[in-house]
Amino acid sequence: MTPYKNLLLGAAFLPALFTFKHASAQSAAEKQAQQPVPSGSNFLGLGLGAMPKTPGSSDMRVLALPVVQYSWGNVAYVTGLKAGVWGFNSDDRSLRIGLYAEPRFGYDASDSPRTAGMADRDFAIDAGPSVRWTTSAGVVNLDYGFDITGRSGGQVAQLQFIRPLITDSAFRLNGLLSTTWQNAAMNNYYWGKKASETVDGLARNVGSGAGLSAGLTGLYAMGPTGALFFGTSINRLSDAQSNSPIAERDYTYVVYLGYGWRL
To answer: Strands 82-89 and 124-134: what pairing?
Structure first.
């Protein structure tokens, strides 16, 4: 069974979760697992992140980005670069269903020898339905996004599991596992080459596929409100992406480090 079929199978069983109830209110560990920076509360900071210059590139680029992690009750939230609203909340808040939006960074073709001569790939925004299921073991997130900016006209689905590993008040650590599927339209735009971008005038198309990712995110408290935060992930490209003419490796890495304040 392909990862994409696994995503569809998981979505098919979601209606059954409406009957699930926790015996008690959400614990601090469950709240910690709901957030990219495991602060367990609202958070504001600034971080430096290193990621591939172009998709599948062995060269890295460093970006300075603000980190905003804020929830407006049970209605809306901003976590990192992702924002959303909840339309349904179960009585114990273990199951939430809503809509999300998240940016997708493009790249400059001049950043890699394998993309030189191509047109730049533009910044885009993915948006669509989102589900969060919080359990005592961890948090399951399911998102299905559409490129609402029309850059690729593509679609993306992600199934993610976040588990709190260390819940000490001074040092907190979450583990993450996820699978992400992108359809052919999205992969072609970011990973493929148009006929006008190849020497022989033949397009290099990239089909749909699902990749895997594993990572850690952590926080170390410094003083009553300040904290260092960090994270790293290793990402296994889908077979379609690995066979892309611009990919230099099957695995990519992301690391980040920053400082912020718990609000």
So the answer is: unpaired
Q: What is the CATH number of domain 3-15+41-262?
A: 2.40.160.40
- Nearby residues of 154 by Cβ (< 8 Å), 6 or more positions away: 146, 147, 182, 183, 184, 185, 186, 187, 188, 189
Residue 221 to residue 219: CA distance in whole angstroms: 6
pLDDT(15) > 60: no
Start-to-end C-alpha separation, the chain: 44
The model scores a pTM over 0.70: yes
Measured CA to CA, the distance from residue 5 to residue 191 in angstroms comes to 22
What confidence tier does 25 reach under pLDDT thresholds 50, 70, 90? low
Scanning the structure block, which residue is given the tokens 């901003």?
78
**DSSP designation for 19:** G
Going from the C-alpha of 172 to that of each of 136, 178, 228, the distances in angstroms are: 16, 20, 11
- Break the chain into its structural domains and give their ranges: 3-15+41-262
Given a contact cutoff of 8 angstroms between Cβ atoms, the answer to whether 231 and 218 are in contact is yes
Work out the pLDDT band at 235, boundaries 50, 70, 90: very high
